[in-house]
């Protein structure tokens, strides 16, 4: 399909020697349209080999605020969980909410991975503080934060030792 007069196209080289075709509608952000849904900022960062910036405190709070009410649908017992497609829609909505802070264009996969990491770190820290860490591990070196307590209260109520 030929591009409309309101759209411009160009190719952006990537670090792995591949190329991404990007389209831009007037008044919108440049988007990668060949294999993913990257913003121009993210496409260019990948092209130069840069990493995305770490999640800010505000982004983490927005992420946790988005996940906790949906926790049962995403991670609950099988009879309470929703389909994989519905889970993707939930993660897209959470990412859209995180993007309202305009720190960085976070995709749903970034948000899901960051959630998994902070959920795992919260559990590991709580176990270490409660003396339940394995003998092989080094244990947690950080103290529990209020955000971690919120995560534990929903994800691991048995570890929520306030």
UniProtKB/TrEMBL annotation:
Pfam families: Myb_DNA-bind_5. Residues 51-125 form the Myb/SANT-like DNA-binding domain. GO terms for cellular component: nucleus. InterPro entries: Myb_DNA-bind_5 (IPR028002). This is Myb/SANT-like DNA-binding domain-containing protein. It comes from Pleurodeles waltl.
């Amino acid at each position: 399909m030929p591009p409309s007069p309101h759209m411009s196209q160009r190719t952006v080289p990537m670090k792995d020697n591949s190329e991404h075709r990007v389209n831009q509608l007037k008044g919108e952000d440049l988007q990668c349209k060949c294999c993913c849904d990257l913003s121009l900022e993210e496409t260019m960062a990948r092209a130069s080999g840069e990493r995305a910036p770490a999640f800010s405190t505000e982004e983490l709070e927005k992420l946790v605020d988005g996940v906790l009410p949906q926790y049962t649908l995403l991670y609950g017992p099988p009879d309470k969980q929703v389909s994989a497609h519905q889970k993707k829609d939930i993660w897209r909505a959470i990412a859209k909410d995180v993007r309202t802070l305009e720190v960085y264009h976070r995709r749903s996969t970034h948000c899901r991975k960051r959630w998994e990491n902070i959920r795992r770190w919260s559990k590991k820290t709580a176990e270490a503080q409660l003396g339940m860490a394995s003998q092989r591990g080094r244990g947690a070196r950080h103290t529990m934060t209020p955000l971690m307590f919120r995560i534990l209260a929903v994800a691991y109520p048995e570890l929520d030792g306030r």
